[in-house]
Structure formats: C-alpha cells, structure tokens
Task: inverse folding
C-alpha cells in the first residue's frame, strides 16, 4: 500500500492539530475534548505492539514498597463469578504521569485531550550509553543526533527513551539502589525539557521507574516537563522492538477525575 | 487517500489473524501474546473518538453503591507533588469484562492478546427500539438487519450495541431501578451469544451497566459470552457518534494479573 506509506509520512506534520505549534502554543491543545480530534492526514498501521508490562503486587516501584493489592470480593467457586477490587497507587506499573502530578493545578488524567494521547512516536535509543553508565541522562545532543539520522521530531509527537533497562526487570538492578538507597538508572536531563517543549512534543516515555534519572535529588525533569502541561509514561515495555520513527503511540490512560496519573494500557501502532 | 480507503475495507477480512475463523476456532487467538500481532492489510484512520466516560466516585454502578474511592496520599501544597491511591472495584465506569469474570479459569485481563483488543468495530443502533422498551434485548434478527444494510460482521470484530442509554447518565433513569430494585435497561439476549460467536466476533460493547439487560435474573449473556472466552466492554460513551462500520476499536484494558476486568480507556479510530 504505497499510498498508506506516504500517509504515514504525511501525518507526521499533524497539520490539523499542530500547525505552527511550538513551545507554549502547543499547550492550547491540552484542553479537555469530550469526544476527540481529527488528524489532517490518515494514520496507517499494520501491527500493534503492547508497551505495557503485566502488573502484579511484586512489580518494582519508585518508593520500593508494593503499590498494588488485589482483593477478591467474589469468586467463581463460591459466588458464580470472579470480581476483585484493587488498592493501587496511581504511579504503579506501566503508567501515566499527568501535568497535575508535578503542578498545583495542571490537567489531571480526566482532562487530557484524547488527541494528545494518540500521537506520532519517536524512539531514541541510548541503550549503549546507558549500558555503560546507569546514571546516564538524555541531553539535547541526543535529540540532535536522532534528528540528524531520522529527521525532525514532529510537533505533537511523544519521545520515548529506550535505555534497555527493561532487561533488568525481575532483578534488583531495575531499581539499582545503592547502600544509601539512591537509585541508579537512566532518565531525561532537566535541560532537555525546554528543547522538547520548543519542538511541540506532547509527552515522553521511559522504560524505567522515573522520567528523571534514578539518582536525581530534585525531580528536575518532572517539575519542568509536567509543570509545563505535558505528560509522561513510565515503565514502558518493548520499546526496543519499535522503529525510531513512524509508529503511533496510544496512551490508554485512566479517565479518573482528579487523577495525577495511573496504570495505563500503552500501545504502539506500527 | 483512496488507497487507504480501500485498505480500511480490506482489513475487515483480518486475514492474518482470522482466516477462516468462526465459532470455537476463533478462540485460539485468545492466547496471551507478549508483544503483539500483525494485521494482514493496513488499518487507516483520520480521527480518534474517546468512548470513555470520566469516572468519579458518583458514577453509577451495577450494584448501586459507590465503587471508587480516591485517597490523596501526597498533595502539591504540602508535599510538592500530587499522588493518590484508588480503591476501585474492577467493574466500575467504562470497563472491561474478561472471560475470567464469568468463568472458572478463562483468561484474565493480563492474558488477553492485544490483537484481540484492537479490532474492527461494528455499531448496531437499537436506540429507537430501546427508547420505547427499556427491557429491550438485542436478538439475532437485529444482527440480520444490520448485515442486510452494512454487509457481514467481519470475523474478529467487536459488536457494539448503541441503545442511546448514555443520555440518561446523571439521572436515576440510567439504572432505572423499580420499587423492587430490578433495573430496566437494554442489553444482549443470551441467545445472540452463539450467533456472534459463530461469526468469530471477539467482544461486545454496551452503553449501559451490563451486557445483559437490566432485568436479567441469571446473567444469561454474561455466562454464555464471557464463558466462551470472549470479552465485553460496559458503560461505553459516544457510540452514537460512530459510523455503523469502518472504525477500529481500541480497548485499553488494565494488564493486571488475575483481574476479572477493570476501568479501561476505550477509543475508536475512525
């Protein structure tokens, strides 16, 4: 389908939503949309990749303690059907960080427009650097290097950091806490927030437990990025299976009123 | 993009996943897929429609009592960031019903293959009938009437029942319980389960609180449909804005181990 291939390239401009959008102008798109938005050119895909980890009470957490309890309220053997309730921290498993997480009154999960959660996906591979330096922080130079090979990051896109950290899941290396309790895993440098915002990027995705690197003492990227009205996804799966450009991210975030984020179903349409 | 229009039509055959799939044979596709599946022909869309209601503790429930509590664990003013935990019943708001909900050992939310949650969407409008009869049950005749106008329900599709019940949200009419507590809203007749299964349908979607009609005393459709390894979505929004065919449903269900279902982000790509 050559026509669709071209459409994939064309939609990267997202003219309908993001014409001229850059920096703060892009924020206008973050108002709540009750139904949804239109793309200027067709988006096309032939496969779906699940970027979501299975979540159970043992899934590692930023705070280091379990953040999910599954309580059986009804069971098939006793009641004829199965039904549980969850006690769950909003920032558990593969999950959404909303602007409200690190701002006084930014949009919460119910207020993010759906057209900002279905967006072109850019994947920046820093796994080689992060493999040699667990404290690695993505900088503006990494964005420049990406664009030199792949072309400009399209306005409205999500930018995913593929650090390769997923391979440590199930071991202490995923949190990689030292004797003092400081964690060591890669993340976004706070200074790159303004660089991505200037390009009109909607959100960022990491395969670790935090948008900031584990050793951050001040949540510098969180405050700048989420505080500017943008979103993040943490603990994504399977980023290493994706092309550097051309996929469409679907962030199936919770639509719970006032939520600062929450476990999400995150997909890539490729 | 005429090529993409054709692709939309072609993908309805879903040859890659569902060639010859009918009845029980389609169940083979319900095994867990860790990464994702491929479509035989490109799927194309130009807009996204959010089929998810905003969920708050006042959202109506099947059991009639609140099923969501949002507990503030950290607040921006006091702690520098906002973070809540939820106590939430799996069957609250716009949510997924898995086979495990009404079977002893069917697939739970973490075990549904992602390619069965991104599928062609058929919308059957029975709002006129349901408007005059709150106890209306969709029958095989409604499927026949749909296909006479729109062509065959494609294998692998989701079939949505648009009853128009959404307009009652925010009033007692949404549950429409009588003096004895019996609810009165439309749903799928139990006999239609076999009809849809024979066509290889993956899941069903309703805009009410139950796959069965409200007055059901035996969860007849639930047992047959979910018990056969298929899924449902309840309390969907905005079905009335969709075309009868041509859209793609994305069920952003929770990937929580052992979940019988859960609040989900449900979208249509049109």
Result:
């Amino acid at each position: 389908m050559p026509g669709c291939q071209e459409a994939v390239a064309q939609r990267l401009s997202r003219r309908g939503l993001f014409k001229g959008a850059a920096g703060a102008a892009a924020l206008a798109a973050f108002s709540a949309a009750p139904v949804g938005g239109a793309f200027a050119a067709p988006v096309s895909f032939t496969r779906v990749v699940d970027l979501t980890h299975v979540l159970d009470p043992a899934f590692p957490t930023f705070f280091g303690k379990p953040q999910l309890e599954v309580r059986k309220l009804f069971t098939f053997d006793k009641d004829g059907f199965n039904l549980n309730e969850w006690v769950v921290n909003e920032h558990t498993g593969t999950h959404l960080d909303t602007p409200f997480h690190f701002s006084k009154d930014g949009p919460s999960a119910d207020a993010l427009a759906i057209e900002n959660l279905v967006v072109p996906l850019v994947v920046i591979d820093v796994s080689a650097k992060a493999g040699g330096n667990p404290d690695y922080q993505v900088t503006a130079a990494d964005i420049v290097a990406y664009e030199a090979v792949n072309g400009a990051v399209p306005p409205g896109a999500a930018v995913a950091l593929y650090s390769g950290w997923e391979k440590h899941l199930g071991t202490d290396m995923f949190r990689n806490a030292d004797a003092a309790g400081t964690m060591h895993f890669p993340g976004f440098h706070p200074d790159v927030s303004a660089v991505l915002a200037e390009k009109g990027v909607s959100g960022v995705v990491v395969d670790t437990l935090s948008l900031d690197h584990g050793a951050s003492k001040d949540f510098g990227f969180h405050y700048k990025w989420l505080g500017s009205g943008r979103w993040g996804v943490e603990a994504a799966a399977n980023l290493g299976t994706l092309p550097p450009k051309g996929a469409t991210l679907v962030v199936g975030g919770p639509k719970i009123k006032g939520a600062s984020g929450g476990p999400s179903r995150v997909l890539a349409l490729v």
Confidence is low (pLDDT under 50) at residues 1-35 of chain B. Residues 140-150 of chain B form the longest helix (11 residues).
